[in-house]
Each structure stands twice: as C-alpha cells, then as structure tokens.
C-alpha cells in the first residue's frame, strides 16, 4: 500500500504568526496584540510578521509553484469580531479573497477557527474562564461559516488546546501570560474550569458547521499532546508506551483528557462534577478526522530532571527538541487505534538555523533529513493500512514563533523580515519533489 492518489500534501500557518496588519481594516485587538510586550524575545511582536495580509497572492503563487494540494490557515477572531456583537466585513473580505486565490491555484483551503489570539473584549470578561466564551465562539463560527462555507469544506475547530491552556493560563509563557502553580488544588480546579469551556466551544462549533455549512463538511480538531514511543517493538514495550501516552490523571497535556469526552462522550471523574449530561451532549459531536500536530515523541523530554534516555549530543532542532523520526508512525497508530478516526498530520516540521548563504540560497539539509525520517514513519503507517488523509508541513513561511519571536525559523520559505522578501529553501524544493511523486520514493 502507498499514499492514496488524493492524499493531501500541504502546509500550514496561523493568522497571528503571518498576517501582520494588526490594526488595519477594522481589526480589533487580541491577547497577543495587546499583552505580549515584555514576554517575547528581543521585544518582537506580530504587528507586521510576514505581512501575509498584503502579500497573500505572492505567497499562494509560491505554494502553487511547490505543488501544494492543501493549505491550512487560521482565521483571526479579533479581525472578524473586533468588539462584542460587531462583525468586521473587511476581515471577512480578506479571508474570502485568500480562499479564492487558493482555489484558483488548485489548492484546497482548510480553515482553523481558533489559533490562540483571543479577542481582548473576551479576555476582559475572563477569557477562556468566561462562562459565555463558548457561546461567543459559536457566534463567531457561524459568521465565518456563513461567509466561507460555499468554498471551504475542511474545518478544524481549535488548535492545540493543551498548549493554549497550559502555556497561556498555567505556565504563563504564552498570552494571556497567567500563572497558576502546578500540583495545587487551585491548579486542578482551574484546569477543569478551562477544559469545560474549551470543550463546549469545540462542540458548539461542530454543531454550527454541521447545521450551517453550504458545502458538505469534513470537521476535525488539531490536537497536540503527550506521545510516547516504545523502546522496542515488543508487546510489553508497546503497551508501556501506550499507557504513558494516555495517562489517567488530570493532565491537560494528554490527548485523552480532551478526546475521551469529545469523541467518546466519556468524562474524567474530575470533570463529572462540573459538566452536566446536557453539556456532555453538546461536547460529544461526531468528527470526521483527528488532526495531530507532531514534532517529537516525549521519550527524550527533560522537563522534570535528568532523563537517562538523553545521550550526549542527541540530535536536536533549533527549538532544542530531540529529533524522533518514528513519532509520526506511533502517533497515527496509537491515536487511530484508540479513537477510530482517520488521522491528518496537521503540523510537523523543525526550526533550523537558516540564513542566506553566499550563493543567495538557503541550504537547509538538516530539515530535509528530518523530513525524510519523519515521512518514512508516516509512510510505514500508510503501508500498514492506517487511514492517513494528509500531511501538512509546519510552516509554509518563516514566521513569528510566539514567545521565541523571529529567531526560530520553521518555514519552507525563508522570509527576510526587513524587506519581506521570500526565498524558497532547499527543503521546499525537496518537498515539492515528494508531492510530485506522491511520496513513492521515501
């Protein structure tokens, strides 16, 4: 078996990381716009970013040159709803123009409805702790679906729920930069309250898309979260890895914390106290696929002290993440076996030390080798019959990497932030070859 003829080779981005135009054409302030000063390396911000708002036609032309089959972008909630009860038609017009440009280039648009930049007017009411946030989200989704669902058929409700909860509301390293000491009763209550609102927002959004979309829709959620690989392919080691991947405790970093209620309609005992049967019915909505953002397995993490698996000189990306090529295989296998959904790899890629060399090109051989290893793992999953519907490289452009600013370059396309010039990296040309041959030579 090999990749299907309609396999979706593509790339991804997020609104705040690429668009810029942070205060143009009626856009409102989001938490990253308003609160990031003092929290980002070098004082960087997303005010201009890659200027994709003005340069989207150039960017889509480069995607077409690479032969992308799909492009996953996110819609900026504060660009669409700058104030409570207010719809910004100029914002909707931008996304309509982007979608039209993609379709004219033969590229499938995939829409992520929330990728972290919560409107400030909601933050001022409590953000994701606000009891009304899920209804606000459903209202926003309805606006976007009404405007774009005649041209978009693939939707993702939320991106990386574990990270925008954990990094934003617990660790304080992402917007809105709020901290709560881990392991305390207060932390557990906070995680549960946030989880309830986030899950309700997801479920209500799915229902809105099902009821309102013009084109038949494929709906998923783009997850990140814990993934462990077995140290050896024995039944015992595989079961150990599976158990570690799906822990039983209160952990917003675990995929099962989210997908047990969203996909299976099952609540963790801690959540049974605060989610009613009626609310669980709103959360538990049929999904067409599971998106998974996969950069590494957690086997080599050292967040909690010395990890004996970490040998000196282990290969790492510029984000200091260990390179674990088999991660895509085990992600597809474990998550499909547990949830029974087709899998889309909604993000995978690496930050590299990229710069323009003396010949004017960006020779990023490390990224090519990274992709070879990870995509071989994905091909193994396909060969074994696991349903994988697409692979989206993160990211199409170098961009604003949240608290890391602009130093960490994930893109297939190099961006000179002084001039906004774009240059295809060697990895982009290599990936174009993979797409052209549909992964046959991996």
Automatic annotation (TrEMBL):
Quote one Gene Ontology molecular function term. beta-glucosidase activity
Q: Which residues cross the membrane?
A: none
Similarity comment:
Belongs to the glycosyl hydrolase 1 family.
Can you cite a GO biological process for this protein?
carbohydrate catabolic process
Q: Which Pfam families match?
A: Glyco_hydro_1
Q: Please tell me whether the keyword tRNA-binding is annotated for this protein.
A: no
Cellular component annotations (GO), alphabetically ordered: cytosol
What is the protein name for this chain?
Answer: Beta-glucosidase
Domain of life where this protein originates = Bacteria
Q: Which UniProt keywords apply?
A: Glycosidase, Hydrolase
């Amino acid at each position: 078996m090999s990749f299907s003829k309609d396999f979706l080779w593509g790339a991804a981005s997020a609104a705040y990381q690429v668009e810029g135009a942070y205060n143009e054409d009626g856009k409102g302030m989001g938490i990253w716009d308003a609160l990031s000063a003092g929290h980002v390396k070098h004082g960087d911000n997303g005010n201009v970013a890659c200027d994709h708002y003005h340069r989207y036609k150039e960017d889509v032309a480069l995607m077409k040159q690479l032969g992308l089959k799909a492009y996953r972008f996110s819609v900026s909630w504060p660009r669409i709803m700058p104030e409570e009860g207010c719809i910004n038609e100029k914002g909707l017009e931008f996304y309509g123009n982007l979608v039209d440009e993609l379709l004219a280039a033969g590229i499938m648009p995939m829409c992520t409805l929330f990728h972290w930049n919560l409107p400030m007017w909601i933050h001022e009411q409590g953000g994701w702790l606000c009891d009304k946030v899920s209804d606000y989200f459903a209202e926003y989704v309805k606006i976007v679906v009404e405007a774009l669902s005649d041209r978009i058929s693939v939707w993702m409700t939320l991106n990386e729920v574990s990270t925008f909860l954990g990094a934003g509301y617990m660790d304080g390293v992402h917007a809105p930069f709020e901290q709560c000491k881990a392991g305390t009763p207060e932390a557990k209550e906070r995680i549960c309250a946030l989880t309830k609102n986030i899950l309700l927002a997801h479920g209500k959004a799915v229902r809105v898309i099902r009821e309102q979309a013009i084109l038949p829709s494929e709906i998923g959620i783009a997850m990140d979260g814990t993934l462990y690989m077995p140290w050896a392919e024995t039944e015992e080691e595989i079961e150990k890895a599976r158990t570690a991947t799906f822990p039983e405790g209160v952990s917003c970093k675990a995929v099962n914390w989210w997908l047990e209620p969203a996909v299976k309609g099952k609540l963790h005992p801690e959540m049974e106290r605060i989610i009613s049967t009626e609310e669980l019915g709103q959360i538990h909505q049929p999904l067409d696929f599971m998106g998974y953002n996969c950069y590494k397995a957690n086997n080599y993490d050292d967040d909690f002290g010395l990890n004996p698996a970490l040998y000196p000189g282990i290969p790492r990306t510029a984000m200091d993440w260990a390179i674990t090529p088999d991660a895509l295989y085990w992600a597809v296998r474990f998550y499909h076996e547990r949830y029974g959904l087709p899998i889309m790899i909604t993000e995978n890629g690496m930050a590299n030390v990229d710069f323009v060399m003396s010949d004017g090109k960006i020779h990023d051989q490390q990224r090519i080798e990274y992709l070879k290893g990870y995509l071989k793992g994905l091909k193994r999953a396909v060969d074994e019959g696991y349903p994988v519907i697409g692979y989206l490289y993160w990211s199409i452009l170098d961009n604003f990497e949240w608290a890391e600013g602009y130093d960490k370059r994930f893109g297939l396309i190099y961006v000179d932030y002084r001039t906004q010039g774009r240059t295809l990296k060697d990895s982009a040309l290599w990936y174009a070859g993979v797409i052209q041959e549909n992964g046959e030579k991996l």
